[in-house]
């Protein structure tokens, strides 16, 4: 133990530090400043603080210098530090003239090869950077393939980084069966929806043939766009299908895929309405509707998607609401429903739009209780309903070469209910009523039942909260 000047050295009868107890106390510290202050009290506590910092949050490596320094730090006491590295996040390793000597890829591969407790890994790639491409180096790919404790792998690429199908396949072939979460935010050489069957006629069938030889036993959740959903042609059971960016052009890929797979019990759909309401009609095939218990609908009306501009008022609220009722009426076993109606409107020097659709969603106009009552009557076994309306309406004044946003009107309004049977005590369960839920309770149920929006839908609707 380090002795503080001015204090007497503890005698033989003095109690010694119980580092196990101190390590437990350290786990209750959430602020880095508190942990650092804790470590400064004596040298014996510094390893405890280092262990906690390494294991409690991801280690973020932003450049070659940080990779080299972290490598030196870890291997200066490898036995004490490597076992506590549980999460790494690596940013594109941009050339740094002030970087420490040594190959950052070699340093990173050494860390990965010895991180036997690593659970989560995030690699942020950019092929715009000529040097230090992590997944372009076989040492990194080989190290990832040997991580037997890895449960979550996220690969994110930056704009301009074009991947090919073969490069993605090479990466996936090295993954261990222990992986529970795989997230690929990759910009693959763009395939327009009408071209899929023309230019990739065998892609889907080849995928399905490959799965007959080897496939996942089950997927908890699949998050992807409508064309990718179709191309994957997955045969294994999927608990939650989370499909984004579905419009009238990509709708058929969703329908065909749902019809050809084991029906999921939970479905999340991010739907673009701006090209017509036809996207909603018969979007959920009967095979899926018969087993669907949880449905999350994010319905987005965006004026950027309206082509031509003369179609600006083609979507009317009454027509949309009637279409939604028809869709819900075809779901006989649905128990949990969440719907978000969102509008993005970007106008130029013409004032806020006097649009019937936009005005119907305004907080002072939208009748949440009436809407929920209609839904309750349409869905016989519904237990929980969550409704929200939101909008982001901007008006810009164009002054070449700059565009200044002069005004912005935005809102998010939401309600939630539990559907209770009025006659539970008398055995009469035919009459039901809406019981409002507190926002905190609603948020808890949304998270527990996994009705949260996908990151893609969150970004598209510009929401900062799930509820």
Summarize the structure in words.
- The protein has 467 residues and is an alpha/beta fold.
- The chain folds into 2 domains: 58-157; 203-461.
- Helices cover 33% and strands 26% of the residues.
- The chain is built from 18 helices and 15 strands.
- The chain has helices spanning 19-26, 32-39, 46-56, 64-75, 78-81, 104-114, 138-145, 165-172, 196-199, 203-213, 226-232, 251-259, 286-289, 317-329, 356-361, 368-378, 439-448, 455-461, and strands at 59-61, 87-90, 120-125, 152-157, 162-163, 181-185, 187-188, 219-225, 238-246, 266-272, 294-302, 336-348, 384-399, 402-423, 428-436.
- The strands form 3 sheets. Strands 8-9-10-11-12-13-14-15 form an 8-stranded mixed sheet. It has a 5-stranded parallel sheet with strand order 1-2-3-4-6.
- Helix 13 links the parallel strand 10 and strand 11 (294-302).
- 25% of the residues are buried.
């Amino acid at each position: 133990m380090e002795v503080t000047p001015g204090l007497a050295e503890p005698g033989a009868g003095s109690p010694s530090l119980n580092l196990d107890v101190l390590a437990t106390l350290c786990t209750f510290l959430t602020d880095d400043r508190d942990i650092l202050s804790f470590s400064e009290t004596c040298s014996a506590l510094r390893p405890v603080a280092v262990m906690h910092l390494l294991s409690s949050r991801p280690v973020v490596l932003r450049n070659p210098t940080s990779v080299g320094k972290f490598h030196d730090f870890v291997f200066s006491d490898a036995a004490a530090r490597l076992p506590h590295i549980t999460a790494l996040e690596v940013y594109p390793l941009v050339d740094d003239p002030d970087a420490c000597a040594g190959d950052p890829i070699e340093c990173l591969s050494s860390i990965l090869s010895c991180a036997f407790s690593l659970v989560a890994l995030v690699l942020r790639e950019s092929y715009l950077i000529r040097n230090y491409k992590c997944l372009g180096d076989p040492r990194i790919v080989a190290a990832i393939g040997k991580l037997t404790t890895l449960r979550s792998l996220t690969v994110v690429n930056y704009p301009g980084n074009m991947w090919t199908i073969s490069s993605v396949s090479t990466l996936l072939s090295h993954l261990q069966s222990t992986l529970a979460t795989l997230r690929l935010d990759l910009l693959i050489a763009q395939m327009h929806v009408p071209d899929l069957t023309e230019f990739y006629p065998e892609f889907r069938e080849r995928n399905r043939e490959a799965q007959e030889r080897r496939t996942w036993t089950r997927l908890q959740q699949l998050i992807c766009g409508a064309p990718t959903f179709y191309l994957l042609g997955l045969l294994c059971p999927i608990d939650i299908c989370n499909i984004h960016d579905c419009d009238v052009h990509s709708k058929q890929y969703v329908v065909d895929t749902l019809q050809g797979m084991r029906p999921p019990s939970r479905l999340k759909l991010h739907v673009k309405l701006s090209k017509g309401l036809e996207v909603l009609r018969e979007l959920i095939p009967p095979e899926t509707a018969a087993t669907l218990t949880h449905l999350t609908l994010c319905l987005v009306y965006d004026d950027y998607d309206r082509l031509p501009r003369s179609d600006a008022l083609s979507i009317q609220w009454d027509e949309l609401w009637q279409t939604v009722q028809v869709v819900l009426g075809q779901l006989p076993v649905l128990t949990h429903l969440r719907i978000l109606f969102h509008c993005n409107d970007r106008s130029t020097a013409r004032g806020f739009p006097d649009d019937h659709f936009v005005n119907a969603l305004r907080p002072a106009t939208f009748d949440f209780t009436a809407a929920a009552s209609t839904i309750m009557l349409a869905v016989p076994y519904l237990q929980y309903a969550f409704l929200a309306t939101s909008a982001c309406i901007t008006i810009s004044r164009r002054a070449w070469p700059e565009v200044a946003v002069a005004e912005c009107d935005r809102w998010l309004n939401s309600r939630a209910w539990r559907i209770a049977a009025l006659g539970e005590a008398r055995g009469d369960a035919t009459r039901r009523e809406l019981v409002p839920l507190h926002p905190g309770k609603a948020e808890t149920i949304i998270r527990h039942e996994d009705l949260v929006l996908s990151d893609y839908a969150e970004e598209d609707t510009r929401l900062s909260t799930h509820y």
